[in-house]
Structure formats: C-alpha cells, structure tokens
Write a structure and sequence with these properties.
The chain is an alpha/beta fold and 270 residues long. It starts with a strand and ends in a 6-residue tail after the last helix. It is globular. It has a single domain, classed as NAD(P)-binding Rossmann-like Domain (Rossmann fold). Helices cover 39% and strands 16% of the residues. The structure holds NADP nicotinamide-adenine-dinucleotide phosphate. NADP nicotinamide-adenine-dinucleotide phosphate (NAP) binds next to helix 1 and strand 5.
Length: 270
Amino acid sequence: MSIVITGANGKLGSLIMKQLLKKVSADQIIACVRQPDKAEEYLKQGIEVRFCDYDKPESLDQSFAGASKLLFISSSNTDDTIRLRQHAHVIEAAKKAKVEHLLFTSFAFPGKGLISPTHLYLATEHAILTTGIPYTFLRNALYTDFVGVLGLDAAIAGGELSVYPGDWKFNTVTRHDLALGIAAVLTESGHENKTYELTAPHSWTFNDLAVALSDLSCKPVSLRQNPQIQNWIYGFLGKINTSSTSSDLEKLIGGPVTSLKESIKQFIAT
Ligand SMILES: NC(=O)c1ccc[n+]([C@@H]2O[C@H](COP(=O)([O-])OP(=O)(O)OC[C@H]3O[C@@H](n4cnc5c(N)ncnc54)[C@H](OP(=O)(O)O)[C@@H]3O)[C@@H](O)[C@H]2O)c1
C-alpha cells in the first residue's frame, strides 16, 4: 500500500504526515511537494519525496504513480478559476495513474455556500465523481484560525469583544483535529465513496468566545455587537455555512475535538 499526499509541505499536509507516521511505516507514505528543497525532513524520516506542481500536469503523472490512496489537498491559489484548472490537472493525472482511492479535502456544507470557493469545491467533487475512482470527500470546516482577525488581544486589553451584529454560529475545528481524522480515514478500510462533514459536533457563538477569552486572561471580557465595525471577515462568514454541524470528525477521531478555549490559546499573547 502506498499513501500519496499532495501539499505535504503545507500546514494541514504536514500535520497529516505527522499523524500518518504514527500509524504506518515511512516506506508506505509518499510526500508530493511543490518545493522539494523544503522537504528534507521527510527524506530524513525515510519518506519518498516527489515533485508535484498542479500547474505542471507532466509532474503529476510521476507523482501519483503506484498510489493506492491519493490524498489530494486542495490548491491554495487565491484565484478560483486557476484552482479549477489545477484541480482538473490533478484529477486527470489520478485517472491516468489508475489511483485506487482518491481522497479530496473539500469544504464543509459547500452546497449552502454562496461564494466562489464553495462552487469550486463542489465542482471538484463533481469532477472526481466523473472519473469513477472510489473517492472520499473530506469536507473540512473553516479552521478556527479565523479568530485571529477578530482582535482578540485588543478585546482582552479593553475588556470587550466587539463583533458585527448577527446570530453567528461557528462549526470550526483546528487543523490538528482534521489531521487526526484524515489520517484515520487514510489508514482504515471502509471509507470509499463516503462524504464526511469534518466540523465540530456543536457550534459555538461569539459569546462563547468572549467567555473563553475571560477564562484564559483571567479578566472580564464582555461581548458587544457593533454595526459600525469594519472587517472583511464578516462578509465572508455571512456567505458560507458556519453553523451546521456533524459528528463525523469526532467519530473518526474516536473522541472529542479540541475545545474552543484550547484552540484559541495560540491566537492570544496572554
Ligand atoms: N478550511 C479552511 O478554513 C481553509 C482555509 C484556508 C485554506 N483552505 C484550503 O485547504 C488547503 C490546505 O490548507 P493549509 O492550511 O494546509 O494551506 P497551506 O499551508 O497554504 O498549504 C497549501 C499547500 O498546497 C500546496 N500548493 C499550492 N499550490 C500548489 C500547486 N500549484 N501545486 C502543488 N501544490 C500546491 C502548497 O505548496 P507549497 O508548500 O509549495 O506552498 C502547500 O503545501 C489550502 O490549500 C486551501 O485550499 C481551507
């Protein structure tokens, strides 16, 4: 069995590699990377490293050769028209290489999203379905990292978390938990032709965030809804489904996802 992983140098990819190494031997894993000079750690661990650039289809044929399972991590390009082409290259190459099982990191509840990335994820899923390759769609929730743009340190300093008004609910998770779940899918049998919504099992609110900030800082932090607030993130959040939840990730992990309080520690200075 060889598990081939694209985007293996990325933040999610490297966490998945770490979890995989706990479950299978290094000679069963192949790391596909765009910058092989940044993958020396993998070589040292006995992992084969292959050059893989979604913009260079010829590189993909060799990258995916012999893959029993191919984990395709979605491109990080910010232009979704370019991403669509890149994703098509990956899917065509997977078909040519006769990959036995294609797993794709999609986005949670994409059918309810109204922005270009959600259309892109759905289009990619459909393209994968056309190949007839057994698939698994790993629909990742928004990373909890988004809290980093909400001004958490300022909220602690001023005792007030100011947010745009609305009935906001969040199903976010950490990359670490996603990596645990995805590594489980990659190393277990029985996940072919399944779609997993890898979200938190219960949504959290901005009030929960204010409480977590108070707990972590040992200072009172209240929540204030402020219609004057200027932050691009609210336009984005309002157009994706951040409220629907699923127990898929906890089932795959075999335990609870990381708590909100624990997840946000790395985004505050205190
Ligand atoms: N769920 C969410 O909240 C969320 C948020 C942001 C992004 N995403 C999506 O999830 C993916 C993984 O997230 P992440 O945090 O690991 O992102 P990341 O750290 O930016 O990693 C993206 C990986 O994709 C690789 N890549 C980009 N363009 C490529 C190309 N043309 N050919 C081959 N590889 C290419 C990058 O290679 P290099 O290492 O060479 O740059 C990198 O390893 C992202 O790519 C994006 O599609 C999800």
